[in-house]
Amino acid sequence: MNVFLLKMNKKTLGKRSVESLTSDLTEEQRKQLCGLLGNVELTLLYKASVHGYQASAFHQRCDHQGPTLLVAYNHSGYIFGGYTSVDYTQCCQQITDKEAFLFSFQDKEPFCIKVKSGHYARYDDAGGPNFGQQLCFCYNNQPVVYHQGGINAFVFYSDTLYGNDTDLSECEVYKVKHSKSIKPWRNVLWTADRRAQLMGLIRNHKPLMTSVSRVRILMIGPVGAGKSSFFNSINSIFMGRITSKAMSGSAGTSLTTQFRTYPVKDGREGKPLPFALCDTMGLEEQTGAGLDIEDISSILQGHVPDRYKFNPISPFQLNEQKASRPASLQEKIHCVVYVIDATKISLMSDKLEEKLASIRRKVNSLGIPQMVLMTKADEACPEVEKDLQSLYVSSYIKSKVRVKVSFKTVKSTQENGNKLLISFIFMLLLVACLLLFYDQVYRL
Ligand SMILES: Nc1nc2c(ncn2[C@@H]2O[C@H](COP(=O)(O)OP(=O)(O)OP(=O)(O)O)[C@@H](O)[C@H]2O)c(=O)[nH]1
Ligand SMILES: [Mg+2]
């Protein structure tokens, strides 16, 4: 394992100042964890294998240190823990901390579970560190983690968080220092002028081929990834008010059961814009469930009519009359967008990845341009949730932008209309612009 050295803080650690502690995190893992926190530096304060698993050893090094990140390791290869922005002081009180979160990863990138309201994020006493009094590290001064019910400040399952393996091989606590100089990894001009300019570009866009009056953009993605919400967001922007024409929400299986082609108008009485978003049923990992690959093939070739009800057991059948004539260029799909939930990227099953790969092969074979739209960046990264404009500053989000096809980040709307902030309107426009210009990059 690659290791890196972190110097102990001389002032706070008194006699032990000559010692240097070695973190068990690889450089890559450290970067990923820093990404969850924005632009920060981590300094290792406490390492249980060196200082002992006793609560007193933990408090001696970690009290009054400001924000800290606890990182635990178990024998099943899970690296998990939590962040708190509030000092440990042994005040014997419940701690409210809206910024607290739990995280976990095993090989892939970390996922993050934010505290529900912030209340009861920790109980601060002379015992070992705990989150919500639900997840207690170094419980009873032993190398174990203990999960107890009761206060549900965090919603998590012990199998996904640490594979139900309660024995710790290490426990570390880092001081988290927020750095002021933040350099974005993508430059975006967050101004109203720029937004108006982008909207103008969309309104005046002319597809390259005269036989095509509007670009048909197909959204494909796992159940609940945010396909329908993305359309609602784009539609809301141009209608100038919150709309929820496409049904969206959370359910075990796809809420969208019909193929829908949604044209977008420039305001209530406005003229149709030169694009339409096509919404599909969500993908599921099992065969015979969710959107079928054969259905996608028929959609791409322009055979599937609007409002066709998907049947995962029996894919779309073209009637003989229609089969005899190929669909026109206007009816075909001109661009495919894979809608992927940022919070689930690292949890995506191999089967679902395989399904996506075979869809990509099909889309490639038809020469249709494709891109990935990453949703729920706010849920994936606490920094982005606090301030959407930090999207292109977040190294965590950057680490997710690594797919082979062009990967564009976006925050789409939630049912809660008042969250339609100027900043994410801006991002949606940016993405919409990119989608529209694909047909100029690749001929239709
Ligand atoms: N926080 C957050 N929530 C989102 C975002 N995009 C979508 N959601 C929420 O995610 C849930 C699922 O969104 P949908 O738009 O219904 O997802 P879908 O891909 O159409 O799902 P199916 O049709 O069921 O396959 C809804 O509750 C949305 O409000 C986002 O960017 N951030
Ligand atoms: Mg949907």
Automatic annotation (TrEMBL):
Stretches assigned to the TLDc domain: 19-177
| GO terms for biological process, alphabetical | immune response
Q: Which UniProt keywords apply?
A: Membrane, Transmembrane, Transmembrane helix
Give the molecular function GO annotations.
GTP binding
| PROSITE patterns (UniProt xref) | TLDC
Superkingdom assignment: Eukaryota
Any transmembrane segments, and where?
A: 420-438
One of the Pfam families matching this protein, by short name: MMR_HSR1
Q: Which family does it belong to?
A: Belongs to the IFI44 family.
Q: State the name under which the record lists this protein.
A: Interferon-induced protein 44-like
Look up and give the organism this protein is from: Sinocyclocheilus rhinocerous
